[in-house]
């Protein structure tokens, strides 16, 4: 096995272990929140996924800028893989948000700044994937997506600010659960641990997806050559 | 105009040109030299990359790899200068259907920043025999008339190099003769032309250089004087595996 | 390279000329927006208490969706008649092409919006003819046109372009919509400039970011 394979498998083992540990800690060890009850445990997942989703989209930005600047496909692989994982994470974010909202706020959804911005984030990066799917073959699709990857990231803070502004003018009746608030030390440590675990998971998935993307490209390339060669007479092959 | 403006010794110089669309390699390490005043006819089957080559030379498509000099200017570094020096004619007339012929020409003239625009339009239209229908909307013109207008558009800024992608398709008999005249007497030696065509007859009548493209490369490039119709056809089948 | 402003002027003139002949863009925007206003008015009911509350929202929904339609039309002509190639082989800067197309779209969108206002006044019983509102419409439409021109140049080259443009455009312009609705609401209630500074600033910031980014990104979008 090459060094790369060893590291990757090692990473997988570390990640799996950490995941098992925090699952135990979240559901068995950490004390129940006295205000929100058991459902508060979802917070660990929700916050971790939020952080990692944000990290993913930052990497989409990095990959997009890199691709437009340098033009080599490894930047594009990075951007695309991060976008895919990011959409997955944001979906989880929205789902955990909804599941948390109902028992706490009494409604499935509210136009709270963070939730709304997450929804917009989700839409923007789903559009990113759609754009890749519907673009003409070749690197045009990668370039279009890179443009979206950059403006999408820049836009998110503006969206957040705009929703916040909107909410201060039209204040909500329902007050949402604060991210901080009454977290005792054990909860704080566990949260940090969960965030770390999800970050490791993200890194593992990213590495895996990027190398898969690279392989996909290579297969397509070989197939293209073989197809072209079959059209040529023997003298030119 | 051409001689005084010559920048660089070759009209077109291509080294190691590769163009890739995703997994598909359309142009493969292509090399080509075209001297000033040459008239190169390019034959090739579908999929050989002829249209892509023209697109690259016209600065519409960026090469994946390779060095391309047109009119002495590097495609990558100075595309605007290249654009000033080439005129392009393709299948599509590149005209706005709802504008008249003269409005179309005026628009292109302005986009090129041309001086004495009305005079230039008069001259170009006259050369192409398009003067009589300049006042009509482009969409109601016949295909042949549209092609003539398109040709007028292409030479409006008096480019020393012309890139023609199968210009004879859709031209009526009279227009074909006009095209032949434009390429031939008076114009020969004045402009450098690269023409992609399927018509062996017309190609051999007009050009002084002949090339065959296959598999994204130039498989053959020779002087017209060394090539006759039979030789061309046999060389073509040898390199491309199909008949011309 | 051909000079910047003459290029922009030539492009705008060409687009206006074509539009005068076909009236494609303005009619699409007007028809769609008018239909939206009518249907919303219908669906939300005739209650005089609700109408002033929802009016700004309805106005901007109509402008936004009609705007998307107008933006698509702006590039369809270029692409389908192959004229994009014709533009690309001119020795003009790609930024000038962007500004030319953007100003053209801006002009058509603004014209349609202004024409629509009387219909809005009638259906919703509110006078929209205040200078504050007109400025908001101008600023917001600049935002729509700047990012919209970039995205429609992208969308026109994809399969399913009718869905691709809204998918790209709508999430990104959410700040404009929020700002415009808030500011319009204040304007309708007779508020002054100072009451809507934050919203107007929001739209203005978005406009600047969108314009600068789109002008630079346009080149990458045009090349093959």
Structure commentary:
The complex is a heterotrimer of chains A (237), B (244) and C (224). Chain A is mainly α and 237 residues long. Chain A is 79% helix and 0% strand. In chain A, helix 1 (3-29) runs antiparallel to helix 6 (185-231), helix 3 crosses helix 6 (185-231) and helix 4 runs antiparallel to helix 5 (140-169). Chain B has one domain (2-240): P-loop containing nucleotide triphosphate hydrolases (Rossmann fold). In chain B, a hairpin with a 2-residue loop joins strand 1 (10-21) and strand 2. Residues 1-5 of chain B have low confidence and may be disordered. The two termini of chain C are 20 Å apart. The chains are: A mainly alpha (237), B alpha/beta (244), C mainly alpha (224). Chains in contact: A-B, A-C, B-C. Chains A and C meet through helix 4 and helix 5 of A and helix 6, helix 7, helix 8 and helix 9 of C.
**Share of helix among residues of chain A?**
over 70%
The gross shape of chain A turns out to be: globular
Helical/strand content category of chain A: mainly alpha
Quaternary structure state of the chains depicted: heterotrimer
> Can you write the helix and strand succession of chain B as a string?
HEEEHEEHEHHHEHEHEEH
Biggest sheet, spatial arrangement of strands of chain B: 6-7-8-3-9-10
Q: Biggest sheet of chain B: strands, sense, closure?
A: 6 strands, mixed
List the helices and strands and how they pair.
The complex is a heterotrimer of chains A (237), B (244) and C (224).
Chain A: H1 3-29, H2 42-70, H3 73-105, H4 113-134, H5 140-169, H6 185-231
Helix pairs in contact in A: 1-6, 2-3, 2-5, 2-6, 3-4, 3-6, 4-5
Chain B: H1 2-5, E1 10-21, E2 24-35, E3 39-43, H2 50-57, E4 65-70, E5 73-74, H3 79-85, E6 86-89, H4 101-111, H5 117-128, H6 143-155, E7 161-165, H7 173-183, E8 192-196, H8 200-206, E9 209-214, E10 217-223, H9 229-240
Chain C: H1 4-22, H2 24-44, H3 50-80, H4 83-88, H5 94-124, H6 131-155, H7 161-172, H8 174-188, H9 197-222
Helix pairs in contact in C: 1-5, 2-3, 2-5, 3-5, 3-6, 3-7, 3-8, 5-6, 5-9, 6-7, 6-8, 6-9, 8-9
């Amino acid at each position: 096995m090459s060094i790369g394979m060893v590291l990757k498998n090692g990473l997988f083992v570390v990640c799996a272990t950490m995941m098992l540990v925090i699952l135990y800690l979240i559901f068995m060890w950490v004390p129940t929140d006295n205000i929100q009850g058991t459902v508060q445990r979802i917070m660990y997942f929700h916050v971790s996924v939020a952080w990692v989703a944000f990290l993913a989209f930052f990497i989409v930005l990095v990959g997009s800028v890199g691709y437009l600047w340098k033009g080599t496909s490894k930047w594009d692989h990075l951007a695309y893989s991060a976008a895919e994982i990011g959409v997955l994470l944001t979906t989880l974010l929205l789902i955990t948000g909804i599941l948390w909202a109902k028992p706490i706020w009494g409604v499935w959804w509210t136009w709270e700044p963070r939730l709304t911005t997450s929804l917009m984030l989700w839409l923007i990066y789903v559009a990113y994937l759609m754009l890749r799917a519907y673009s003409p073959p070749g690197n045009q699709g990668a370039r279009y997506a890179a443009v979206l990857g950059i403006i999408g990231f820049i836009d998110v803070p503006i969206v957040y600010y705009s929703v916040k502004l909107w909410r201060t003018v039209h204040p909500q009746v329902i007050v949402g659960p604060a991210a901080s608030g009454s977290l005792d030390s054990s909860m704080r440590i566990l949260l940090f641990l969960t965030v770390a675990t999800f970050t490791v998971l993200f890194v593992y998935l990213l590495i895996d997806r990027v190398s898969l993307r690279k392989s996909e490209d290579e297969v397509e390339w070989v197939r293209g050559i073989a197809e072209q060669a079959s059209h040529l007479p023997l003298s030119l092959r | 105009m051409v001689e005084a403006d010559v920048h660089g010794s070759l009209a077109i110089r291509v080294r190691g040109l590769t163009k890739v669309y995703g997994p598909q390699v359309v142009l493969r390490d292509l090399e080509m030299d075209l001297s000033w005043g040459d008239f190169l006819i390019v034959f090739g089957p579908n999929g050989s990359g002829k249209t892509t080559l023209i697109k690259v030379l016209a600065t519409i498509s960026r090469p994946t790899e390779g060095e391309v000099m047109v009119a002495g200017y590097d495609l990558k570094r100075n595309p605007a200068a290249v654009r000033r020096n080439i005129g392009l004619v393709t299948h599509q007339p590149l005209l706005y259907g709802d504008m008249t012929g003269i409005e179309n020409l005026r628009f292109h003239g302005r986009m090129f920043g041309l001086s004495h625009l009305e005079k230039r339009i008069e001259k170009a239209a006259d050369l192409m025999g398009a003067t009589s229908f300049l006042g009509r909307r482009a969409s109601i013109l016949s295909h042949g008339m549209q092609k003539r207008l398109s040709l007028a558009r292409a030479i409006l800024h008096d480019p020393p190099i012309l890139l023609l992608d199968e210009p004879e398709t859709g031209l009526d008999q009279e227009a074909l003769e006009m095209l032949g005249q434009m390429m031939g007497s008076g114009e020969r030696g004045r402009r450098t032309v690269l023409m992609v065509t399927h018509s062996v007859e017309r190609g051999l009548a007009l050009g002084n250089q002949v090339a065959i493209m296959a598999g994204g490369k130039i498989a053959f490039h020779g002087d017209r004087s060394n090539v006759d119709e039979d030789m061309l056809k046999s060389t073509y089948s040898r390199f491309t595996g199909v008949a011309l | 390279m051909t000079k910047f402003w003459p290029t922009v002027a030539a492009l705008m003139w060409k687009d206006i000329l074509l539009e005068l002949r076909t009236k494609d863009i303005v009619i699409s925007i007007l028809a769609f927006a008018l239909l939206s206003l009518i249907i919303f008015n219908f669906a939300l009911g005739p209650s005089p208490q609700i109408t002033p509350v929802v009016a700004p929202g309805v106005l901007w929904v109509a402008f936004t969706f009609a705007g998307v339609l107008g933006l698509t039309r702006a590039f369809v002509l270029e692409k389908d008649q192959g004229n994009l190639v014709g533009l690309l082989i001119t020795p003009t800067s790609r930024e000038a092409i962007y500004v030319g197309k953007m100003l053209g779209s801006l002009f058509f969108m603004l014209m349609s919006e202004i024409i629509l206002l009387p219909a809005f006044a009638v259906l919703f019983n509110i006078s929209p003819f205040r200078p504050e509102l007109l400025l908001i419409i101008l600023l917001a439409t600049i935002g729509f046109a700047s990012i919209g021109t970039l995205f429609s140049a992208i969308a026109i080259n994809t399969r399913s372009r009718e869905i691709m443009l809204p998918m790209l455009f709508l999430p990104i312009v959410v700040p404009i919509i929020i700002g415009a609705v808030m500011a319009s609401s204040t304007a309708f209630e007779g508020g002054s400039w100072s009451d809507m500074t934050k919203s107007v600033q929001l739209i203005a910031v978005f406009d600047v970011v969108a314009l600068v980014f789109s002008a630079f990104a346009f080149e990458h979008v045009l090349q093959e």
